[in-house]
Write a structure and sequence with these properties.
The complex is a heterodimer.
Chain A (H helix, E strand, L loop, with lengths): L6 H12 L8 H18 L2 H13 L6 H6 L14 H16 L2 H11 L1 H4 L19 H15 L6 H20 L6 H16 L6 H22 L16 H15 L5 H12 L15 H15 L14 H4 L1
Helix pairs in contact in A: 2-3, 2-5, 2-14, 3-5, 5-6, 5-8, 8-9, 8-10, 9-11, 10-11, 10-12, 12-13, 12-14
Chain B lengths: L2 E6 L4 E5 L3 E2 L1 E10 L2 E8 L1 E4 L7 E8 L2 E2 L3 E4 L6 E3 L8 E5 L1 H10 L5 E4 L2 E5 L2 E2 L4 E5 L3 E5 L8 E2 L2 E3 L6 E3 L10 E2 L3 E4 L2 E7 L2 E3 L23 E4 L2 E6 L2 E3 L6 E4 L2 E6 L2 E3 L16 E6 L2 E3 L5 E3 L4 H7 L3 E7 L2 E3 L3 E6 L6 E12 L3 E6 L9 E13 L3 E6 L11 H4 L12 E2 L1 E12 L2 E6 L6 E13 L20 E19 L6 E10 L1
Parallel strand pairs in B: 10-12, 11-13, 12-15, 13-16, 14-21, 15-22, 16-23, 21-24, 22-25, 23-26, 24-27, 25-28, 26-29, 28-30, 29-31, 30-33, 31-34, 32-35, 33-36, 34-36, 35-37, 36-38, 37-39, 38-40, 38-41, 39-42, 41-43, 42-44, 43-44, 44-45
Antiparallel strand pairs in B: 1-2, 2-6, 3-4, 4-5, 4-7, 7-8, 7-9, 17-20, 18-19
């Protein structure tokens, strides 16, 4: 099913984001809103969301003047811990801003953020640890997408093998643990699904054995979430009459995108995303004062951006660059 | 000297004059058909056209005043000829004739031919079907559009509904990726002959397909000729030129013949290999001329994913009486050879002006299925080839190509990622006007080349040799007039090997377990 653009919704979305006080948000929330805006811009071509992205990055201190950079060589993002994996999410927003504006300062900001890969502490199995020196399946959404994005654009792809090695370790440990009790772990699994499909999107597909491995992990994770929904644990998803939680919208985003990228069969999987998409909350009712407010708005941006993209087999807009990168 | 019949169809035949030279005969000779002189030839392999179906023929040659034996044969039965003009093709170089030609092909019954008469036929992508003879007459040109919007796309992978299997159509450099369909394309077809004196012209230049060609644009570039899971396919006589990418790409196909084909791409064109059989079995390349911008013949078997999933090497291939010039490699094995290559024999060929004669490109990470075995070169004349034989087990392709894992000259543990090379044989080879080195052979220290045989070999060097890099591997620097560099080989056989005029030691063999002279 192709969902047409909803200009009223976009208007409500942009008004909501424009009302945010960026200084009150942590890095995760900032990144969710900014990456969401980037995706809406990419899907719709709406300059309004591109401008939100650029202005937001500036207000978050991600793009600094030369003198600022000299003063803050080791901390590009104002107020961020240097081991915070969420910093990497801002890197994706920086690259999107480069695409929107064409200005190299944003790519430079992304490259500066990527320097953190060299110092990020790792587990014994080799994957990145978070600032608490722990590991969570959802960390993949913070770190691995930007790692791949950076490697594809500026890293010479030399660390693709490191990325897939991290995913292999994560899948065998963190994912297996989460999937063993998928009902409890639906939120983690949803972010993991989004991480995998986003990582696939920004990689060079001719490294096919890596691409395909990510796809296999993605499908497995999607099925694990759906298994929860349709095997007596229906309460893992929001029930009828309720609105979707942010992680459910993230899952819907991943499924929509998986269908578009042919990682999932549209006719078999799109329904799940549709169902959750239709439970998207009224944007005007979401408050940034609530703990999950910014994440929820960011998730709404993401799922909307994929919902309006064409997932039909016969008309995937090849004039716009084909299936994967349209 | 003997005249032999190679093949015949309803309308043509191919003969071979044995022991008369390599690709070109030492002298021009005459061919007589049913007692009348038909033509003169200076080729060992010669095509004879304009025969009639279901008819007896006797052919002999007169070479240097001597009459050869007579070859007798009966041409095939032919039911009907479907002239594409009668199906609406214009052949005026302006109208799009794709549909008319496709209609004729789809309507063609068994034992019949689709005839493309003289004219220029604009086409995008034409598809073959089983039991088809497609003849491009003299002066007929299938002239391809270069607008990518006109080309269909072959999806790389289509997953089965039950998600247990997949259907692979497109292929790009060893992986199942979305690719524009070829100008002439066959999927699951068998018993196909493409014959005639006509031309398929890709019309590619640096304004279209070769522009920014390292990047996918909608889909990957089309081949000029692509067959996927086809059987009993013969391409004979035609000229193929200016290909968007690899020119002739048989893929997971078997029982293939390429006879008296002319493959021509500009020397500076990108990735325009001449003929790249990938995971194919029983391939004959005979009397074919190849001058291209990349490797003349590149034998492949996919990258890791396809190799592990299907495990189909390229095997049982013969290249004979061919002329290859102006490419990076005359015959290359690699680099996408993750399923291995075996039983490949190249004989009686001319290699001219190529960077390398044999070029093996492999690296750690290709995997344990990547076994190269029983590959031989025999009776080859090379002229102006920079380095006649290069075996590079450290080829620095792919994103990790320059990592320590790929480039280390220290022995690493043998595991599932380690490729291997078993037997390579070179006999009766003259290479004159070499520039960089006679051979540059580098096996892996942990998986040495098992047996390397050189017998009756003459290397000599150009008067003004050009320096160059023999192999694309870390640590291989520019050099000139080196002799035989051999490294990491279990058994090296050197019998009657003559190296005249090299700088330094004629043979530098390191980490070679045993040398037999």
């Amino acid at each position: 099913m192709l969902i047409k653009r909803n200009l009223e919704f976009e208007k409500a979305l942009s008004e909501k984001i424009l009302s945010v006080d960026w200084t009150k948000l942590d890095t995760w929330d900032r990144a969710m809103l900014l990456n969401g805006a980037a995706k809406v811009w990419a899907a719709t071509g709406s300059d309004e969301f591109g401008n939100i992205l650029v202005e937001g990055l500036k207000k978050c201190g991600c793009v600094l003047t030369d003198s600022d950079m000299a003063a803050q060589e080791d901390r590009m993002v104002t107020g961020c811990d240097s081991q915070d994996l969420c910093n990497f999410m801002l890197g994706n927003a920086c690259y999107a801003a480069k695409d929107f504006t064409g200005e190299s300062v944003y790519a430079e900001a992304a490259k500066k953020l990527a320097e953190q890969f060299n110092t990020q502490k790792r587990s014994e199995a080799g994957y990145f640890l978070n600032k608490e020196q722990g590991a969570c399946l959802c960390d993949t959404y913070c770190s691995q997408v930007f790692y791949m994005n950076y490697e594809t654009r500026d890293g010479g792809k030399e660390h693709y093998n490191d990325i897939i090695a991290q995913y292999n370790s994560i899948h065998e440990s963190l994912y297996r643990d989460a999937a063993s009790d998928a009902k409890e772990a639906c939120e983690l699994l949803s972010y993991y699904c989004a991480a995998l499909i986003d990582t696939m999107e920004v990689m060079d597909q001719p490294l096919y054995e890596i691409y395909r491995k990510l796809q296999d992990y993605f499908k497995e994770a999607v099925k694990a979430v759906l298994e929860v929904k349709y095997s007596g644990h229906a309460d893992a998803f929001s029930g009828d009459g309720t609105t979707a939680a942010s992680y459910e919208l993230i899952f819907a985003y991943a499924v929509f995108k998986g269908c578009r990228m042919k990682a999932l069969q549209t006719e078999k999987y799109e329904y799940a995303a549709d169902m959750l998409y239709n439970k998207m909350p009224e944007i005007s009712s979401v408050s940034f004062d609530s703990a999950d407010g910014a994440t929820l708005v960011g998730a709404c941006e993401l799922v909307y951006s994929e919902a309006v993209r064409n997932r039909e087999y016969q008309d995937y807009g090849r004039g716009k660059g084909g299936v994967l990168w349209s | 000297m003997e005249l032999k019949l190679v093949i015949n169809t309803a309308r043509s035949a191919v003969v071979e004059l044995t022991e008369s030279g390599k690709y070109y005969t030492y002298k021009e000779y005459e061919i007589f058909v049913n007692g009348k002189k038909l033509m003169e030839s200076d080729r060992v392999i010669t095509s004879i056209y304009d025969l009639k179906p279901d008819t007896d023929y006797e052919i002999y040659a007169v070479y240097d005043g001597q009459i050869t034996n007579t070859v007798s044969f009966h041409t095939d039965y032919e039911f009907v000829t479907l002239n594409v003009r009668e199906f609406g093709a214009y052949g005026d170089g302006e109208h799009d004739d794709t549909n008319a030609i496709q209609c004729a092909i789809m309507a063609c019954p068994k034992s019949s031919r689709v005839l493309v008469p003289e004219g220029i036929y604009k086409v995008s992508s034409v598809f073959l079907k089983s039991d088809l003879t497609l003849e491009l007459a003299e002066g007929a040109v299938l002239s391809a559009y270069t607008d990518r919007e006109k080309f269909p796309i072959l999806p790389g992978v289509i997953e089965s509904y039950d998600e247990s299997g997949e259907y692979n159509l497109g292929s790009w450099e060893g992986n199942p990726l979305d690719t524009f369909s070829a100008i002439l394309c066959g999927i699951n077809a068998e018993n196909v002959v493409i014959t005639g004196r006509g031309t398929i012209d890709g019309n590619t230049n640096f304004e279209n397909w070769w522009n920014n060609c390292k990047f996918r644009n909608i889909a990957w570039r089309p081949r000029l000729f692509f067959i996927n899971h086809c059987s009993n396919v013969t391409m004979h006589g035609i000229t193929v030129q200016n290909s968007p990418s690899w020119t002739i790409h048989p893929y997971f196909s078997q029982h293939l013949k390429f006879i008296d084909v002319k493959i021509k791409n500009p020397a500076n064109s990108h990735n325009t290999d001449g003929l790249d059989p990938e995971s194919c079995t029983d391939v004959l390349v005979l009397g074919t001329y190849i001058s291209v911008g990349d490797d003349c013949i590149a034998i492949k078997s996919g990258k890791i994913y396809m190799a592990q999933k299907y495990q189909v090497p390229t095997s049982d291939m013969t290249v004979r009486q061919c002329c290859m010039r102006d490419g990076h490699g005359a015959v290359t094995v690699g680099s996408e050879i993750a399923a291995g290559v075996k039983n490949v024999h190249i004989t009686d060929c001319l290699f001219m002006n190529t960077d390398r004669g044999l070029r093996v490109k492999t690296r750690r990470g290709r995997g344990k299925l990547s076994v190269l075995d029983d590959i031989s070169f025999e009776n080859i004349d090379m002229d102006n080839v920079m380095t006649p034989f290069v075996v590079n087990s450290f080829y620095f392709c792919d994103p990790d190509g320059k990592t320590n894992y790929v480039g280390s000259k220290e022995a690493l543990p043998v595991d599932d990622r380690t490729p291997s090379i078993k037997r390579l044989t070179f006999k009766n080879i003259t290479a004159k006007n070499c520039h960089v080195a006679g051979t540059y052979i580098y096996g892996l220290p942990e998986s040495k080349i098992e047996r390397l045989t050189f017998e009756n070999i003459d290397f000599s060097y150009a008067e003004n040799p050009k320096p160059g890099v023999a192999a694309m591997m870390l640590g291989c620097d520019e050099a000139v007039k080196q002799g035989m560099i051999v490294n990491n080989v279990k058994e090296l056989v050197l019998k009657n090997v003559n190296i005249s005029g090299c700088d330094g030691e004629p043979v530098v063999a390191e980490n070679v377990d045993k040398i037999i002279k």
